[in-house]
Amino acid sequence: MNQTYEKTHLYIISRKYHKKKFRSISGRYLAKSLIVKCKAEKQRFDYLNFRGSHFSRVEFLDTEFKGCDFWGTHFKKCTFQKAHFADCVFVGCEFTDCIFEDTSMEYTTVVNTNLSSWKNIKRGDHINILYQYPVFQHSDELDKALALFKDNRIFRKYKLLYLPGNRYNCLNIYLLQKKVFSQ
After folding, report:
1. Are β-strands 162-163 and 167-168 bridged in parallel, bridged antiparallel, or unpaired?
2. What are residue 89's DSSP bridge partners?
């Protein structure tokens, strides 16, 4: 598969009395984006990385999120109405005064995220909630396999197996192990 991410920062800020529309996007690295007072109605967001992004007063109405990464993402006073999350990852996210109405979630992993405001969310199949960062099972064979990808430019750029400082991406390796050994 030769899929690549386009690296972009979004700055969508609506002015008074004029709410901008947040349109469907796929396959983008949108880290550290700022989206304020926008509306995403009947939109689809596929395979987006919102690492460190901030959403404030955004309305997600009948919107689908598939394969999105929300690492350290902040949501403030956002509305999720009939939103659906599938194959997403939430790590260290903050949800402040958000409203969830008829929102659903499946095949999603949540790590170190306060879920107290997650009311009215239908949790479907394979929701993995971790209250601390996972540790994966090491073996000599796994260490040798991971070493093969250590210098791979694409794997390093998108932090798939390694984080800066040659640290393992424990969450991704844990999820891969879980997927492989559950079959």
Report:
1. antiparallel
2. 69, 109
